[in-house]
Design a protein that fits this description.
By secondary structure, the chain is mainly alpha-helical. The protein is 53% helix and 3% strand. The protein has helices at 2-10, 19-24, 27-32, 50-70, 82-104, 108-120, 134-142, 150-158, 161-166, 178-188, 207-216, 226-235, 279-291, 294-308, 315-327, 332-341, 356-366, 374-384, 407-424, 430-438, 444-452, 456-464, and strands at residues 239-241, 256-258, 268-270, 273-275. α4 runs antiparallel to α5 (82-104) and α5 crosses α17. The protein is globular and about 85 Å long.
Amino acid sequence: MIQTEIAVLRFGLGARPGDLAAAAGDPRTWLTAQLKGPVQLAVNTALAPSDRIFVELLAAREERQEMKREAATSADPQAFNPVRDAYLPHYRAQVLARAQSAAVTPRPFAERLVHFWTNHFAVSADKGAVFGVAGTLENEAIRPHVNGRFVDLLTAVEQHPAMIGFLDNQYSVGKDSELARLAARRAARPRPDAADKPRREFGINENLAREILELHTLGVNGGYSQKDVTSFAQIITGWSIGGGKGRLAGGIPGRFYFRENLHEPGAKSFLGKTYYEDGQRQGEAVLSDLCRNPATASFIATKLVRHFIADDPPPAAVARVAHAFLKSGGDLPHVYAALIDAPEAWDPNVRKFKTPEDFVFSTLRALNASPTQPEEVIRSFELLGQRQYTPGSPAGWPDTAKSWDGSDALMHRVLWASRVAGRYERGLDPTDVAESSLGAYARPDTLTALRRATSSKQALALLLMSPEFQRR
C-alpha cells in the first residue's frame, strides 16, 4: 500500500482528499496517465502573453524617461515607477495562477514536472527586464513541451524573450556582423560635431551560451572549453527580441526575432564539429546536437533523480534514466517512465525534505484549499524564503535538504503553519486531514498528538510540522 503514498506524495505535489484512493488501484498507471499532451494551468485565468507585456514595458520606459525630463529635480522616488506599475500586476497574476493550479490540478505529477523544468531553465524576476515575464516562460515555453521532446523544450526556452532578456543575448553582436562593420566605418570617419559623444561598443555576450552548456544541457563537467563557449556565443548572435528602433528594429515586439545584422557570419567550430548552417539554423543545429550528447543525458538524469528520489542520486537510477534519454532521442515521456520504473524510486525509507514551494503547495492540497489573493501567496513565499520566479541566479533554487532545513527556516515554517491552520481550521477534522494527506505515512505518535491538541488550529499546525508531512 505504501506505493500509493509514494506515487502521490513523492512524484506529485501532495495529496488532496481522494488522491490516495484514485492512485491506489495502480500507482504507476496513475502516474503514466499524466504524461500525455501539454500541461496547461488547471485554472481558467486569462494571463497576458509575454509580447503584450513587453510592449507595455517599452511604453512604461518611455513614460519614465519623459517623467524624468519633466521632474529632474524631484526627490519623490514614487515619481519614477511606471515600469514597476506596468509589470507588477502581471507578476502577481502569474504567481496566483501558479499556486491555484498547483492546489487543484488533477495531474500533480505533470505539474511537478513543469515546476522542475522551470527551475532547471531558471530566470529570475529580480532582474528588471524579466520581472513581469518570468512566469510566461513557464506557461508559453515549458507547459506546451513538458511531455514532448527535449530538443523542442530546449529550443522553445532558449528562444523565449524572457530567457534572452534575462541573459542579455539581445545585446550580443558579432565582430564581423553587418552592424559591427557599419559601426567601424562610421568610427573611421571624422565627426567634429560629435567629438565629446562616446561611441557605442559592440561585442559578443557569452551569458546565454554559457548557461545553455553549463546549466541546461552538458553540465559544468560536460567536456566543453572556453573556446567552445565563445564559439557557441558567436553562433547564437542575432537571437533577439522583436521591436526596437532604427537598425535594431524589426520583428513583432516582444517575440523572438532573429536579427541577421547582428549575427556573426560564416562557418564555426563547436565541440570538434563545424557548423555550416546559415543564420538562425546554425544555433538550432547546435541545440539539436547537444540534445544527443551523452553528457546532456547524464546531467538531466542526475537532476531528475535528485529531484524525485534522493539528494544523493543513486547511480543505478541515473544510469537507467540517462539510457532512456539517449535511446529515445530525448523523448521525455520515455525518460519519465524510466524514472517511474527505477526500483530506488519506490523505497519508502528514502524521502525528500520539502522545499518551501513543496510545503506550501502540499499544504493547500491537504487542506483542499486554494488561495484567492496574490498577496497571500507572495507573503507566504517571502516568509519561507522561496519567492516565486525569483531564484536569484540562472542556477535556480537548490534541491537538497541542507539548503532548507536550517533552524531559522524551520521557525518560519512553524509561524506559517500556525497562520494557515488558523485560516483554514473551520470544518476540518485534523485526523481526517492526516489520513487523506499522508495515508500510511501518518505515524501513530502524530495521530495521538493531534487527538490531544487543545484546538483544531493547534492540531493542524502540529500535522503540518510533523516529520512525515515535512517530507515527500
